[in-house]
Amino acid sequence: MTLSKSISEQIPEIEARIRTQLTGKPSLLLADLDQLIFRGWRSLRPTLTLIFGRISNADPEALINLAAAIEMLSTAMLVHDDLVDIENQRHIGPNINPSFRTSAAVLAGDLAFAAAAQLAAATNWVAVMQKFSETLQFIVSGEITHMFRNGQGVDRDSYYHWIHAKTASLFELACETAILIGTQEDETMSLARQFGYQIGMAYQISNDIRDFSSDHAIQEKPIGSDLRQGILTLPAIFYFESHPGDPLLRSLLHKNGHSQEDLDGLIVAIRQSNAVERSLDEVRAFGQSGREILMKLPNTPERAELEQLIGQIITRND
Amino acid sequence: MTLSKSISEQIPEIEARIRTQLTGKPSLLLADLDQLIFRGWRSLRPTLTLIFGRISNADPEALINLAAAIEMLSTAMLVHDDLVDIENQRHIGPNINPSFRTSAAVLAGDLAFAAAAQLAAATNWVAVMQKFSETLQFIVSGEITHMFRNGQGVDRDSYYHWIHAKTASLFELACETAILIGTQEDETMSLARQFGYQIGMAYQISNDIRDFSSDHAIQEKPIGSDLRQGILTLPAIFYFESHPGDPLLRSLLHKNGHSQEDLDGLIVAIRQSNAVERSLDEVRAFGQSGREILMKLPNTPERAELEQLIGQIITRND
For residue A220, which phi and psi values (nearest 5 degrees)? Predict the structure, then answer.
């Protein structure tokens, strides 16, 4: 089974809407912003908006603006996150003079915010703007909490809060607002939001697992690159839970005192432990919760498509 | 003549609305953001919103949200600008660990964006959101153009474009949207926007003149601090127009090749030239244009208050 043709045909329309929104903007940054947006282009979130929009009989034109706006909000945060993970400025492309990296990234992100706000306003729904601003605030607050957590230990709860803020919140937004601009039916809107949470959490954990995997054809970054930057994701957290005395944990939290060889050894140890499998169990658990939420929706072709999407996330690391 | 009591009494309400909006946000950044917002607190722009809102019979509650939203948008851009003028991180306060300066400023700015978006959405007007997003984009585009201008000379036109983007655009927004959420009368809205442009330009040039002045009781920064950072404002531009061969111009544009003594000498030369007086003439010209726009509005106490405000800007450097 594949996605219905009309959904997959609409994805290029969203991409075109983003390009139109950015047309005529300062060309010096645009090449790099363009590269970031479309290099990282994943159609999962826009697909969710389109499917839920069909469930809610939303205006197709407003749906395109909505999906494009959410992708631009995500892009803005990605650009600014690269400044927070300051050693990891991979997203700023070769066109930018290195001395302008910080400024360029700040302004490129702000330009993406402006585009997101314009596209969201183009839906013509005040309630959409409210959801956007709440989501932005939740994301930023989560990033701030995460930024200042350093050296204060790490646990699954704070990891879950962090990925909820940075990833799942945008999935909640993508699903919920698609109902909001259509039928606005309260129960469906709540289910859409809950489903967005579950699929968003499953998606981010599965991404974090891939950071420890060498089995995937396209690797954008070296194995363990999050850990090399001192970013602890779920596999590392599970590993340290079962190895609480490991001296590398403390040095990682303080981003000092470990050698490249220490890190290489740790990454091998994590990959050989049961931490990856335990993380996969979490992906499956979020996926299963997502499926259970779907069972509360009418049995339609759209629901079947959502079931298929969550199945793809559960199995992408198998 | 003083501002009518009810206008000046509403200013604290706007400040309180901003504080409420920020309550409960991550406390680590909040102290610094708070310091920035209220250290730089100028009541001119909110006062314009309140006066035009009275002209347009706008809902007082929506006006408070609107004025608070504009101040938060301005704050967001100020915070991010400090990263663009990277050597000038004066706004990030002592509570922030220096190694987090960049990250903290990016996220504090984003938090201010989120607050601006929430307050703007709280006005319940989609058209307000559209004006906000257009303004944000205009500001960011102007900053980008200005950032990449380096070494390519400087002239009054590009200076005017830059201060229109970074300052006058927010005054246009403050005046125009106050009509937009009230009577929405096209002619008044257009006049309000035009007036916002003129008073905003006059205000920024008068600020830039103060950078060359030692006559003011409260100096937030040393004389000539813009120039010391390689930022050419109107007095310097007038000076170099009449001294085109000055070797310091080129070195300033490339931010190298000049000593502290060179700069000190240049600042004295600018202060002793007619450049400051010519800049004051520009303030008066923008002020006069603003007055002429006001003459097209009905002769009301509100119009008299606007005339008084523009008079204060014209004479603040005398």
Answer: -75, -20
pLDDT tens profile A171-213: 999 999 999 999 999 999 999 999 999 999 999 999 999 989 8
Q: Do B148 and A84 touch (CB under 8 A)?
A: no
Nearest to B100 by CA among A90, A164, A143: A143
Closest residue in A to B124 (Cα) is A126
**Distance, CA of B4 to CA of B29 (rounded, Å):** 36
CA distances from B214 to A309, B233, B317 (A): 66, 17, 11
* SS (HEC) of A221-244: CCCCHHHHCCCCCHHHHHHHHHCC
Tell me how far apart the alpha carbons of residues B165 and B173 are, in angstroms, rounded to a whole number.
11
Structure tokens at A25: 């903007």
CA distance B14 to B264: 41
pLDDT of residue B262: 84
Q: How close A76 gets to chain B, by Cα (Å)?
A: 10
In angstroms, what is the C-alpha Rg of chain B? 20
Q: Show which of residues 100-139 on chain A sit within 8 Å of chain B, judged by CB atoms.
A: 100, 102-104, 106-107, 109-111, 113-115, 117-118, 120-122, 124-126, 129-130, 132-134, 136-137
Residues of A in contact with B136 (CB under 8 A): 110, 113-114, 117
Q: Above 60 in pLDDT, residue B88?
A: no
What are the pLDDT digits (tens) for A91-101?
444 444 444 56
**Is the Cβ of A78 closer than 8 Å to some Cβ of chain B?**
no
- Domains of chain B (ranges plus CATH)? 5-315 (1.10.600.10)
